[in-house]
Design brief:
It is globular, with a radius of gyration of 19 Å. It has one domain: Rossmann fold. About 45% of the residues lie in helices and about 15% in strands. By secondary structure, it is α/β, with parallel strands linked by helices. The chain contains eleven helices and eight strands.
Length: about 250
């Protein structure tokens, strides 16, 4: 279940965020439950795309799955409620659920979207194509990232896990690469040179900075790692994955 209104849009449009992110999840779970009631034992595997946005500051140096859930955005609250619904419907035997808490997924292909963290992708994606990118936050902003390739791997691997393997805590945080924005930029420099880095234009945006400030930064994903989930080793590898998967394996002229 991937359908969602993303962070920035959910914050700007309260009604739309809850209608899509919460009501959509509840409607899906109820449709599954009613199908089972009509036709017998229908208990599908349901992989839910949750988010690290369920956690809220103040944060410890690294956040484990046991850290308390206190989201500081409407999007985070909607995802947290979705996790609770998934856990309860799974406990009752209506679905066989697993919740995947994604880190920031970069570098996202295509056009920029309304995510408050979209710049994490934009400051790499646009310069690699010779386009200007806006950076709304300071270089010391730190976050955990994984590639779209890893995100697909998270979902597929999550679907393969049994309830016995997961145990009663079916929602878990994924691994990733924790770096500052400055370290992202230096990785871009190593791979594409100074010309690409010069295309990043600093454009402070207090609204985006405030949302990002309330997000968790570093995760202790030992539980996910012990269950076989995998991500990249460094940010250079994330950029290379983008070049391989979205740019045909080479940098544009």
């Amino acid at each position: 279940h991937l359908a969602a209104i993303i962070s920035g849009e959910a914050e700007r449009d309260f009604d739309k965020g809850y209608r899509i992110n919460l009501d959509g999840m509840r409607n899906l779970l109820e449709a599954i439950r009613q199908e089972s009631a009509r036709h017998g034992a229908y208990v599908p595997k349901l992989v839910f795309s949750s988010s690290s946005g369920i956690f809220g500051a103040p944060f410890p140096p690294a956040i484990s799955d046991e850290f308390h859930v206190t989201p500081l955005t409407s999007y985070g609250a909607q995802k947290a409620i979705g996790e609770l619904l998934l856990a309860d419907y799974s406990r009752r035997g209506f679905v066989d659920g697993v919740g995947i808490r994604f880190p920031s997924i970069v570098i996202r292909p295509g056009k920029p979207n309304a995510s408050a963290g979209g710049f994490f992708s934009g400051i790499i994606r646009e310069p690699l194509q010779g386009l200007e990118a806006l950076l709304p936050v300071e270089d010391d902003v730190i976050f955990t990232h994984a590639s779209p390739r890893s995100a697909v791997g998270f979902l597929l691997h999550g679907a393969s896990l049994s309830r016995e393997q997961l145990g009663p805590r079916i929602n878990l945080s994924m691994p990733g690469v924790c770096v500052t924005v400055g370290e992202q930029i230096e990785a871009l420099r190593r791979i594409a040179g100074d010309k690409a880095v010069k295309l990043i234009r600093r454009a402070p945006d207090p609204a985006s900075a405030a949302i990002v400030k309330g997000w968790p930064t570093r995760f202790d994903a030992k539980r996910a790692l012990s269950l076989g989930f995998k991500a990249e080793r460094d940010f250079d590898e994330i950029i290379r994955v983008h070049i391989e998967d979205d740019l045909g394996g080479r940098l544009p002229n």
